[in-house]
Amino acid sequence: MLRPAVAADIPFIRSLTTRPDYAPFISDSDDAQLQVWIDSPSDRVLIWETDAARGFAVVRDIDRPGGIVELFRIALDRAGGGQGERFLRALVDHGFRKLGAERLWLDASAENPRAVKVYTRAGFQVEGTLRAHWYRPALGRAVDLILMGLLRSDWQALEPLQVRA
Ligand SMILES: CC(C)(COP(=O)(O)OP(=O)(O)OC[C@H]1O[C@@H](n2cnc3c(N)ncnc32)[C@H](O)[C@@H]1OP(=O)(O)O)[C@@H](O)C(=O)NCCC(=O)NCCS
Questions:
Q1: Closest Cα to atom 24 of ligand 1
Q2: Among the four 43, 100, 131, 143, which has the fewest Cβ within 10 Å?
Q3: Distances (CA, A) of 5 to 48, 56, 131
Q4: Domain span at residue 138?
Q5: CATH of the domain at 104
């Protein structure tokens, strides 16, 4: 269900990152930057597919010492459609099982309770808040940024059956 992105996926990714209703929550990167991440051995651009491409995520620093991996950009084609939990579980599973991460972390706007709820449900814990830290051009102001993390040991405690499978 999760596969590495290829150049042909860039229009799909940008169709999400350029959406005005997503602009308070995610940034857009140009095609060249996306291609750099697609080609980089340190990063992954992942496409979440069900019947078709439904979401994407950028995963950074997969070769960082200590297995500290960032879920950098996350979006579905249909926000509020109830797929967030499945998507996040797939990403978390991929991070620990396929990438060998010891820690997954991400950040989210404090004004994005939908995302924070999905991340919390996947096991991420709030680890701090950077106040007025993330400037959002669409809002014309900086929002608070919530830092969240999930350790391999948290995941193993949450998913003992899946971890053994
Ligand atoms: C973040 C995202 C992946 C979540 O997936 P999703 O499928 O939309 O999430 P869901 O529909 O499962 O909603 C998650 C929960 O948030 C709740 N929710 C929705 N809007 C909310 C709001 N404004 N305040 C509080 N809770 C809200 C939903 O009711 C649901 O909770 P429930 O299952 O208890 O009813 C998706 O919304 C998305 O791609 N958003 C646009 C880009 C984005 O914000 N990316 C995150 C960057 S950090």
A1: 113
A2: 131
A3: 9, 8, 33
A4: 2-164
A5: 3.40.630.30
